Every structure is written in C-alpha cells, then in structure tokens.
Amino acid sequence: MLSTKELFLTLLRFPSITPDEAGSFAFIRGYLDDFEAIEVSIESTKNLFLFKKFGEGEHLCFAGHVDVVPPGEGWKSDPFEPLIEGENIYARGAQDMKSG
To answer: Which GO MF terms does the UniProt record name (predicted)?
Structure first.
C-alpha cells in the first residue's frame, strides 16, 4: 500500500482535465480493489462510486473528484508532475480535491 504522500503524488500525475479522467479511475479501482465499484457516465462525464461495508449501523460517505480545469499559462514546470519544495507540493489539483 502506498503512503499518503505517494498516493497524493500519483493522483496529481494524472492529467485529468474535465471530462477526461485520464486513467485515474482505473488506478483508483485497482488501489481500492476490495471495494465494490460502480462507474456511471452522465453525458461526457464519468463518475466512480466506491462502496465498502465495514459493519452494521450508520454509514459514512466521502465525496470528491479527480478532474481539474485546464492548467492555463504561467506554469514554470509541468503542472502534472508534482514539484516538491520544502513542505509544499505544487501541481494542478494539489489544492482542489486530489489532496482530499
């Protein structure tokens, strides 16, 4: 299993510009292979739902996304190759859901 940081860096490397998930769903499905997965497309946008029952009682749901808007201009490095400077990580999606 990947460390939290390694998982984060891996997700940042997917150029998942809406509506293309760029293979990130296959990675997530493989990484969480013991979860039940359902993939649903609405128009050109794919959605991935993962489920796992841990016991009886109340349920907890996490919702997120891996798509990003185009990176635009102004990047000094590849926006889909994480740049680590000290304790900071720079990449497209680092502050918008790929970080959790």
So the answer is: hydrolase activity
Q: Which amino acid is located at 40 in the chain?
A: V
- Asked whether 16 and 93 are in contact (CB, 8 A), the reply is yes
Contact in structure between 63 and 51 (CB atoms under 8 Å): no
Say how far residue 16 (Cα) sits from the centre of its chain: 8
Q: pTM of the entire structure?
A: 0.87
- Distance of alpha carbon 100 from alpha carbon 28, whole angstroms: 13
R_g of the chain computed on alpha carbons: 15
Give percent above pLDDT 70 in the chain: 99
Task: Categorise residue 57: left if φ over 0, alpha if ψ from -120 to 50, beta otherwise.
Answer: left
* DSSP state letters, 74-95: --SS-TTS-EEETTEEESTTTT
Length of the chain, please?
Answer: 100
